[in-house]
Amino acid sequence: MRVHRGLVAVAVSGLALVGCTQTVAGTATWPGARIAQSLLTADELPEGTKYDRVVADLGPMTVNSQRQQVVVGGMPSNPQGCADGLSPRLANAGKAGPENTARYIARFNGANIIVSLLRDTIDLTNVKDVATRCAKYEVFFDTNSPGTPMTTEPVQGGPVGVLTYKQTMIMPKGTTSRYMSFANVRGVAMVATSFDLRDPSVKATATMPQTFLDIVGKQVDKIERT
């Protein structure tokens, strides 16, 4: 799996008040230091998980030799706006750049889980409103195609204060689902999403939604401790 990686640098120095006789101890850090330090690392995930840090440029990234967008949206829907009602918040809730967004992908046989931490906050009330309005909707792949049914439903069992949803696309030959979580934790916004991925070469196996909820729970806990 090839993914653009970014190196995180943290500058540490003493801070003195100019013109005063008293020196104030402290650290001056790069603005993105806290979110970078708050990310889960490979050794904090289940054994056999494939882990990659991602450059947070909010643009296309290379996954399995294919160019993909973290955000998928803009598709017509009924009600209007449901196709991308939650999707932009998966990556675009914060400003671009590694000083504002830190991200990793945890890949299992069964799921690709993308977690982003943002130096920002998410409007959780708006997320709830969108999820309620788009509990049942249709998406249209082009102007001549029939609508494809979609559902959005809340998922229980996650950490307190975290909004988690399951979105399901109902196709003639079956269904495909993704899970999404949104939270504000001590001044850091967390957004996570999962996509179906069957890859026997990955030793770690995902059992959904529990694997997703476990990672979200660990991530929230680490933000609180950092």
Number of domains: 1
- The CATH C-level class name: Alpha Beta
Q: How much helicity do the residues have?
A: 10-25%
The unreliable regions are 1-24, 58-73
What Rg, in angstroms, do the CA atoms define? 19 Å
How do the strands of the widest beta sheet line up side by side?
1-5-6-11-10-9-8-7-4
Give the topology string: H per helix, E per strand. HEEEEEEHEEEEEH
Distance between the termini: 29 Å
What fold name goes in the CATH topology slot?
Answer: Protein Transport Mog1p, Chain A
Mean pLDDT metric:
80
Number of strands: 11
Main β sheet profile? 9 strands, antiparallel
Silhouette: globular
**Number of distinct helices:** 3
Strand content: 25-35%
Q: What is the CATH architecture assignment?
A: 3-Layer(aba) Sandwich
Give the class from helix and strand content and strand pairing. Answer: alpha+beta
Essential attributes:
226 residues; alpha+beta; Protein Transport Mog1p, Chain A; two-stranded antiparallel ribbon; 3 helices; 11 strands; 14% helix; globular; disordered N terminus
Nutshell version of this structure?
It comes from Mycobacteroides abscessus subsp. bolletii 50594. By secondary structure, the protein is α+β, with helices and mostly antiparallel strands. The protein has three helices and eleven strands; from the N terminus they run H-E-E-E-E-E-E-H-E-E-E-E-E-H.
